[in-house]
TrEMBL record:
GO cellular component: cytoskeleton
PANTHER family: CILIA- AND FLAGELLA-ASSOCIATED PROTEIN 73, COILED-COIL DOMAIN-CONTAINING PROTEIN 42 LIKE-2-LIKE-RELATED
Protein's UniProt name: CCD42 protein
Biological classification of the source: Eukaryota, Metazoa, Chordata, Craniata, Vertebrata
Annotated DUF4200 domain residues: 21-125
Originating species: Tachuris rubrigastra
Superkingdom as given in the UniProt entry: Eukaryota
Length: 289
């Protein structure tokens, strides 16, 4: 820095000399400002690098969400396939049971047709004989036919009942499967809706967080610039006026108070320079005051 002229001697210098001194001071201030601009440019570069890192992190988070969505869809598809396989196996079992009942019914029908031949044979025999040999023989003959018919009818009725029960079970199972499939589809739709809402919430919170970070960064940067400007002005004033700097570097409020006092002192000096007293002995420097 250039030599600082005391306030008492500065009043006696020529105007050209005072102009040179002021220009030197302006050049020093310009160098300080240029240094501050370079530091600010470096801070902005670091801030841009930080923003790029945040953008990469956001892209990675979106990839994770997409992979999780694909995983949920794959799990749901596997679960649906397993349920379909189980339902197909149960339906195949019911179809086999129904086929068994139908086969049993067919066997009963064939047995009934085979017994009808015996009835025809007996009727032909009776017609050829003309009459029964005796009453006990006729009673025994009709009793046997009635018992055989009752047994066949009972077996046919039991087969029909088993067939009806099998059909009822099959229909009930089909209804249960339809209801379960409908509930599963509704549940999948609800899960998909909830997943989409969660994705929207994630995007909204990420956007809000990015805005908050940007606002905090801007406010922090502005506050740092203000503190740095106050500190620089404070150091320049205290150095130029040769005032002891007993204020902490982080105490911005005290620095502002000191700057205000310096500004008032400079204003008094300027007023004194513009309206000097009549007697030279009455002139006092601001630093001595």
């Amino acid at each position: 820095r250039g030599r600082t002229v005391p306030a008492g001697d500065a009043a006696t210098l020529l105007p050209s000399t005072r102009v040179l001194l002021k220009r030197r001071e302006v050049a020093e201030v310009e160098l300080e400002l240029q240094s501050q601009r370079e530091e600010f440019r470096q801070r902005m570069e670091r801030l841009a690098l930080r923003r790029e890192q945040l953008a990469r992190r956001e892209e990675e988070q979106r990839d994770v969400i997409l992979k999780y969505d694909a995983f949920l869809k794959a799990v749901a598809a596997r679960r649906e396939r397993a349920r379909a396989v189980a339902q197909g196996a149960e339906a195949a079992c019911r179809r086999r049971e129904l086929e068994g009942l139908l086969q049993h019914r067919e066997r009963l029908a064939r047995r009934l047709r085979s017994l009808r031949r015996f009835g025809d044979y007996l009727r032909d025999a009776l017609s050829s004989m003309g009459q029964f040999q005796d009453v006990p023989a006729m009673l025994v003959h009709f009793g046997v036919l009635a018992e055989a018919r009752a047994v066949l009818a009972q077996e046919a009725e039991a087969g029909q009942e088993r067939l009806a029960q099998g059909r009822a079970r099959l229909q009930r199972y089909q209804e249960e499967m339809s209801t379960e499939i409908l509930n599963t589809n509704n549940e999948l739709a609800q899960l998909h809706t909830r997943l989409e809402a969660a994705c929207q919430d994630v995007l909204q919170w990420e956007s809000n967080w990015a805005h908050v970070q940007s606002t905090v960064t801007q406010k922090t940067l502005l506050l740092g610039q203000i503190k740095l400007a106050v500190l620089n002005l404070f150091q320049l004033c205290t150095a130029w006026l040769r005032i002891p700097m007993d204020v902490a570097l982080e105490d911005t409020e005290a620095q502002l108070d000191m700057l205000l006092l310096c500004m008032r002192g400079l204003a008094d000096i300027c007023a004194t320079s513009m309206h000097p007293p009549r007697h030279r002995g009455a002139r006092l420097s601001w630093s001595q005051e």
